[in-house]
Structure formats: structure tokens, C-alpha cells
Amino acid sequence: MAYDKKHSEHAPSGQHGGHSEEYLREKHLMLDPLPRGQMNDMVMESMLAKPTWKFWVVASLLAAIVAYGLFYSWGRMIAEGLGIAGVNRPSYWGIFLVNTVFWIGISHAGTFISAILRVFRAEFRRPFTRAAELMTTFGLVQAGFSIFMHMGRVWLAYWLMPYPNQRMIWPNLHSPLTWDLLAITTYLLSSTMYLFLPLIPDVAMARDRSTGWRKTFYKTLALGFRGTEGEWTHLRNAMNIFAFAIIPVMFSVHTIVSWDFAAATRPGWSSTIFGPYFIVGALHSGMGAAIAVLAVIRATMKHMDYFIRGEHFDAIGKLMLIISMAWAYFFFNDYMVQWYGGDVWTKQLLHFHEAGPMGWMWFAMLICNIVIPWAILWNPKWRATPWLVATVGIIINVGMWFERYIIVPISLSINRMPFTWRLYQPGVEIPLGIGTLAFFILLYMIASKIIPLIPVWEVQEGQMAHELKKFGRETVVSVSELE
Amino acid sequence: MTESKVDLLAVFPDLEPAANAIEHLRSIGVHDECMNIISGIPVTEAMLGRPSQWTNVPRIAMGGAILGFGAGFFLAFITPYLYPYPIKVSSQAFIPGPPTVVVLFELTMLGMLLSTFLGVFLDSFFPNYRPMKYVPEVSDGKIAILVECSHVEEKKVTDALKKMGAESVNPAEAQHL
Amino acid sequence: MATLSDLKISEVKLGEEHTGKWGMVIDQDICTGCQACVAACAMENNLSFVGEEDSGYGRSMHWIRIERFWEGEYPEVKMTPNQPMMCQQCGSATCEPVCPAFATVHSQAEQLNLQVYNRCVGTRYCANNCPYQVRSFNWRDYERPEPLPNQLNPDVTVRRRGVMEKCTFCIQRIHKAQDKAKSEGREVVDGEFTTACAQACPANAITFGRVDDPESMVSQLAKRSHGVKHLEELGTLPNVTYFKGG
After folding, report:
1. Facing A178 at nearest CB: one of C65, C94, C100
2. Low-confidence stretches of chain A (pLDDT beneath 70)
3. Touching A: which chains, 3+ CB pairs < 8 A?
4. Which CATH number, 3.30.70.1170, 1.20.1630.10, 1.50.10.20, 3.90.1140.10, labels domain A21-479?
């Protein structure tokens, strides 16, 4: 199971205060190169390893949850109407929209890691860009499910697509929901393509070393890729364009999601800072989810402790801390201005958030999103402990889910017509929500068995670019720009 | 008629010998266009001293962006006139100002990214499941040089490649990948 | 040099300048809270019967509701007048632009907010964005046991699950009156017809008519000084005037 090199517990220092060469090599994947063939074998082995009985138990449990929670419950809701859910007047939007925002948030981590970190040449990204991109695509699938569940007449959802039709009508471009449809479609398509492009060389690798149905599968996916100069040039150019262009798309998606709320005439929603606030919130939950996924991959899959190391958890942990601070900043900014505005309904709403029947959630949100991350992530040693940062990541996700719950159904409970004020109690939303979560995990488990999770060629490229350099008595890491 | 040609596939363990071999081949009169490199990582042309590769991907992407912008323009500015009667919502303008920016942006990006993806397919002739000249060792990090030469030169080129450190030099045969 | 008058915003219609077409005046001082309007509206417009449980959970299906407020603790209770609340047929409605399917639009001819049932896909954005919270959603296909179907109004469609609906100012009655007047070669006379709620009100607390006709009953009443429009500050330009404490 374990990668055979022992990682030393204590941090050995060189005689003169700096770190020794062995320590640096053990710490950094990029300085600890293995022959490409060996890395290929490790990735193939981790993927082809015969699933243990635990895998089957978890997978069948998840499949059962998906079958009941997602498909059966949804079918029942389509047949009977939204009445079996908890949405009511005034909370016309319930957990469906909470989950939509939540999953779109999760999906932002993939793009952040594989596009923004690529653009800024953050080398630690290399081994887990694919794992993060998979989260983007699978998260968006769940967001799509949630948004379709939310519709009263989902069988007419195609009416929102712009195409010439006999109804002589086109979608209403005044509506933030129409922008949402355009933005989420764009994002889903482009993130799937961006997942696929860097995958081509890796499935070509898998094709060269597999037999049977897998051979046919990888051969089909590899599209006949050989690795000629031309193919690499086209691929590199395309990935470069994607890395830059998908960043504004990602920003636009969550901004538009925030406009669903901010454009409405409602106390608490009508806030101009919602765009960046939502983006930071999305990254907050996304990074938390990414680190939890990485910890699970590392703990359960063969050879992953070679590719994913403490340094990666440390690096993402740092990002999480910064994002948590940014989230706190935006939260306070939003709160301060709403509070100062003095609008009677907004005041009422803020009071309801904190002291209403769901006030515990408001405080839990602040603890999960700010207090716990700050209390733990400042410490480099704790940051590099996979289970600990993964736990923080999951706690952040709980906190961010609470945040969306407060923004959607709780804020909807209070409006300008006090006669209609009423609390929201989720109904069939709960199995449906759990169903999307189970489906996400199940898709990921299946993908881990058929898709090389580590972009081996990117890791090798990085290892070529890194070397140790001596400045006087100190050994330091240096990186050359190959691209 | 043209003389018959033969393809040689030489496998090199590393970048350095491959670059040297390319230089040497050039010196014995093999043209750059008769060579192709197959590698498991993106080796840049500069590393091997090869002429830079032409790619249409950025141009195709630009074309797609223009098409996408056109589609966005159609949606934002033309479709409101296609209804049998003008539809008015609230006190907003018939063609709303700021929302058109959103539509134009999303469709431009969609057009650009879709065509970038398509560009890779077009430029690389994907998907392509015909037999091709290839050695699987490439995905293990080896660098293969595919040389096209005439039958007369075959011996000379093979010897040259061997001398420059090729692990193996074989006449390439198209095979199913 | 720019003068103050140059700065006057000419394009934005302010509330006072706006006149709708159809409007309503509701006198809260004489409303007894008897709910006759609620029942009449339900009969006229084929509303579903949602039952006790759903109704108690905030899914009541009423296009008009009587809002009842009180101040203080029992027995020192001070009732404020009952407040019938229905779609205010805003001149600049917030519900309209947010629908992705154009299912709720502004009628140019009647100056009303239309709800197009067969275009609605049920995103419920309009209901969230309605500051008056007067839209009702069909959460289920509600049962209509025999012989209740015999009571259905043939002039009004029935709605199925997943569709939003709201007060229409009894647009079927408006059209009927207009058709009758047209066939007789005349204009619709004020007071010739009225909405179901106004017709049923035993205290005559609801008056309906043309607000763009200064001679009409509703215009005369609306001129009274203590008339207010709800949430006027949002710029929704509502077409219903309320009297309270006159």
C-alpha cells in the first residue's frame, strides 16, 4: 500500500541552519523524480487495483442512496408536484437553490486549481489538477440536477433554451435565470473540455498498457494521440487558451448566480457586493472540498502518497486560510452596509438571522467559516496533516452550506408583508440533497477506477523543471520555465 | 515516378541524445520536414532545435469567438423583434442595456472555447483510429524520432542514429494503437 | 450653464405621472373582514382547494387575502383595520423581468400584469420578487371532488401543478364587458361590471373601475387625501389605493 520511501517525522536541518538536500527531496514531489515508466505503472496500478470489499460496500450503498434519494424521490416529485417538498410562501426557493449554489461553489475549486494556478505557474498544482477538474465537472452535474429539481414543470425545461420554435418566443433576456442558463451551460461545457484536453496524453499512456475492454475504451478516448510535435503544439496552445479564458467564465458564473438574489427587490438580497462575495464563498467551499477529496484519494488509493504529499496540503491550507479571510472581509462588508442602511425590513431580517429560531445556524456559519479555519490553518505543521486539513475542509463546507441556507430560505422568510412571514421546513429536499451528494461521490469513485487521476506527463514536466541549487552553503529549490 | 521512401523510427532515452541526433541528421542531409518527434511530454521545438510548429488553434479560437459574438448579438438584439407582438416587461427597455453585455460575453466565451476544442481536433486530425507509426515506449518518457528517407539512404541514416545513441532503430510500420 | 431644471429627470416616470387603466380602491375602515371577497374570487377564478394541511403551511391558494393585524397583548388588544391584499397590478412590476420564459408580462392594452399559465415552467422567481407576496403556486394537482367540477367557471382556465397564478382583476369580466359594449357600439360604462371581490363585498369596501377616467367612481374616490398605495417607495407603481383611518 504505502510508497516505500519513509518520510521522516522530524525535520532534519543541514548543519548550517538550512534544510538538507534529502529533506527537500522527501518533502517536494517535484524534487523527488522517478522514471516516467515507474510513475506510469504506479498510476495504472492505483487505477487497476482490484476493488476491495469496502469499495463495493460503499459503492453499492451510494448507488442505493442515489436510486432512492435522487431518482425515486425526484420521480415522485415530478409525478405529484412540488407539494412533497418543503417550499412554501414566502420561501418559494428552498434547499434546491441552496444546493445549486453549493455545488456550483464546489465546482469553482477545480477551475481555480487547474486554471488560475496554471496561469500563475504555481508548481504545487501539478499532481492534483485532474482530481480538482473532475470535481468541477461532477459538481456541475449535481448543480444541474438541483436546478432542474427546483422547477415546477421540469418537463418543459427545454423552453428556456434559445432556439426557433413554434411557440414564437425566445427566452427572456431580462431575467437573471436566463443568464444563469447561458453561463452554467458555458461553464459545464468548457470545464468538461478543459478536463478532457490534458487527459488525452494520459489516456494514450493508459491505452499503451492495458488490454481487453479497457484497451478499447482508452483507445477511443485517446483519439489516436501519439505525441507528435504537432499534436503537442496544438494541445499546449489550446490548454493555454482554456486556462486564461475559463477564469472570467468561472467568475461570471458565480456572479450571475449571485445576481439571482442581488437583482431581486428583497431586503437582505439587494446587495451590490454579492458578486465577489459569492465568488469568494464558492472558492472557500471549493478548496475545502478539494482538500477533503485529496485526503481521501491519498488514504485509499495505491501509491498516492508519492504523488500527494504534505507540501500539497500545506499549500492548499494556506490558500484556504487566505480565502477564509477574504470571505470574512466580504461578509463583514455586506453586513456592515446593510446594518448601517437602517431600512426597517433589512433590520428586521438581520435580527431574524441572529436571534430568530434559526439563529444557531448563523453563529455556526461564522464558527465553521472563520473561527475554525483561522484557529487551525495558521500552523504549518497542522496544515501539512492531511486528516486535519481535510476535516477543516469539510467543516468549511458545512459552514458554507449554512451560509447559502441563510441567504435562501431563511432570508425569504422575512419580507415586506409581515402577514406572510413563515418558516421553511424541508421535505423531500433532504433525500434529494443527500442523493446529489451520494451521486457526486459515486461518480468520483467510478472515475477513479477508469480515469488516470494523476496527470503523469504534467508531473514529469514539473520534475524536469525543478532542481536544487546551492547559494553559498544553502541548498534551495529552483524552477526553470519550460513552457 | 518517385523513388520509394521508408520510415525509420529511432527511440532515444533522453532529450540530449535526441537533440544531438537531430542535429547530426540535418548535417548528413536529412531535411527537417522529413523528421517528426514523438514524445510523452510536451518537448518544445527549441529544446530539440527544431523549426517551430504551425498551429491554427488560436486562429480557430478567434473565429469561434467571432461566431459566438454573432450568436450573442442575434440573441440579444434580434430575437426581441421576432415575436409576433412586442413583449414588454416592467418598465425595462425593450432591449435591455446591461443584460445584453451578459449575453454577449457568455456566448463569445462559449464560441471561443468550443472552437478551441474543435481546433485541436481539426489540427491533429482527431479522432483517428487508423493504424499509425508509433512505439509505446514513448509514453514511458522516451523520445522517438520518425525519419523519412529514401531506400538508398536507409543504411546511412540507421547507422547515424545508432551512433548518436538510439536504443533501437527499426523501419516503422503502421500499427493499430 | 446647467440650471436646476436641466437636471430634471425626464425619462423616468414618477409615481404621480403614472396612470394605469384599471384600478381599485379599498376602504379598510369599512372592511369587516368577512372573507366574502376571498370566497367569491375562488369561485370566479376556479381556484383549487388546497386543504387544511397545505394551507396551514403557507400554501393557501387565494388571489386575495384579508390580512389581520393587532397590537398589544390580550385583553388589551388594539385591532388595526383588516387589509385585503391582492395583486396590485403594478405599472412597473418587479415580477415581470425575472421570469426566464416570459410567463408574466405587461399587457399594453389593459395595463395589467398578465400571467400566462401555459408558458410558466415554475421557477417561482416572480413570487420571490413580488414585494406584496400575492402570487400563489400550484404545489400539487389538487383534488376537486364531485360535484365541485360543475361549479367551474367556463371563462377561466384551470391550472395544473407547477404553475404560478395570481389575481387578474377578473380579466374575463373586463373582456366580456368590452365585447358586449363593442357589439352594442358604445364604450364600457363605469359601474357596468365589476370584479368578483367587489361584487361580493357586503360593505362595499372595494371599488373597481377605470383610473384613467377622471369621472369614474374609482378615480373620484382615489382623490381623497388619505389614500395610500402600498410600498410605493419601491417604484412599483401599484394600481390599488387603500384608505385607512379616514
Report:
1. C100
2. 1-18, 483
3. B, C
4. 1.20.1630.10
